[in-house]
Amino acid sequence: MDWFVETGDVITDDLMVQVLRELHENLRKRYPRGSASLLLIYAAGSNSISVIHSGDCVLGELDTHDGIDWQTSPHTLANALVEMPLKDIAQSPTRHLLTRSFRARGFELPDIVKLAEFSGSLVLATDGFWAELSEKDQARFLGGDQASTATDRDDRSVLLLRISFSDHLALVMHDKSSKNLYRRTADAQQISTP
Fewer CB atoms < 10 Å away: N or C end of the chain? Predict the structure, then answer.
């Protein structure tokens, strides 16, 4: 994230993949058994967003009825051979087996999705959120009721992000987002939520 904010280079999808490849080379030496899912979004001054993802974190768009229209699919064994709705992937025991992630043994190209003419609310979620909570519990969680869904299960981190391109790019992190997130932006030195 620090590189992303501090670079003077024009950000492109190819540059992001190149930087991820370089980071991977360094991290794999320090964490030879490590693995992580990643979901990065990059919104420039135009009405488009690049989504770079690998693993089981997913991106959704919050609709007007507080439902979530999922825009990406996780990289799991459950949906490796055939496309499946997220709710069906959630029911499969093979959803825990990742077919692609940011792992030490070798760099794998992430998927890149473009959202053109976008303005609205995005949901960035871990598998504990999209797979283990019902749609009703997801809505409650986004409304701030995190205690009623607390268990010893998968991490349920979620970021609700409002993006507007009206006159200029505006990003607003919803105050009901999970508290264990780290974000850094070009217009703020460091914003971290414990």
Answer: C
